[in-house]
């Protein structure tokens, strides 16, 4: 009996067959959805493992505690967006039209964010309450984008090509306004865009329209003509 694979397996260690069949990306996507739906406090590893279709032991083996699983979900979602957008933004730091760069930055961000709408549902929750989980998201996955975005905006502003507006206003219009269609997908389905998240053409139009409106709002105001000089 002691020579059988079952007997030699250490207690708590998943079977190798379970290891081979485990789909890490799918597990993270399902867990991300549970955290977005139920919040961190409301979500349980037991419920997540049930929806993933694996045992608690296997989920713990791969991700550890609930906090570690949550962090892995954030890295999987925001991290994937960051890995795609930061190289694009780095290219925008070179020569070129500063206003066109701002447009490209906004469009790219809004378009890429559609890949993980659950991440923006989570940051809405954590952004309202604050704390270590919000710090984790900001420090690891938002600051890098903000640093490059501010360079692009400041470069255009110094040349007088865009208005000098409060940074907080611009940030929330892009970061929350541009992604609200995804984060509030049930509301969008009822009042604005049913099935939008499944339509790549619509998502591209939404990203372009968001960038168009942001850039238009940033355009310097035309001086008011002086009637006495006409």
Give the SSE map:
Blueprint: H1 5-8, H2 16-21, H3 24-42, H4 45-52, H5 56-63, H6 66-92, H7 98-113, H8 117-129, H9 132-158, H10 167-177, H11 180-183, H12 185-191, H13 200-218
Description of the structure:
- The chain is mostly helical.
- It has helices at about 5-10, 15-20, 25-40, 45-50, 55-65, 65-90, 100-115, 115-130, 130-160, 165-175, 180-185, 185-190, 200-220.
- It has a domain at about 75-220: Tetracycline Repressor, domain 2, CATH 1.10.357.10.
- The chain contains 13 helices and no strands.
- The termini are far apart.
Précis, in short:
Helix content is 73%, strand content 0%.
Helix content: over 70%
CATH homologous superfamily of one domain? Tetracycline Repressor, domain 2
CATH topology of one domain: Tetracycline Repressor, domain 2
Taking the alpha carbons of the first and last residues, their distance comes to 103 Å
Classified by CATH, the class of one domain is: Mainly Alpha
Characterize the overall form: elongated
Structural class: mainly alpha
Radius of gyration, whole Å: 23 Å
The number of distinct β-strands equals 0
Discrete helix count: 13
Order of helices and strands: HHHHHHHHHHHHH
Tell me the major beta sheet: none
Mean pLDDT: 85
Low-confidence stretches: 1-17
Query: How much of the residues is beta strand, in percent?
Result: under 5%
CATH architecture annotation name of one domain: Orthogonal Bundle
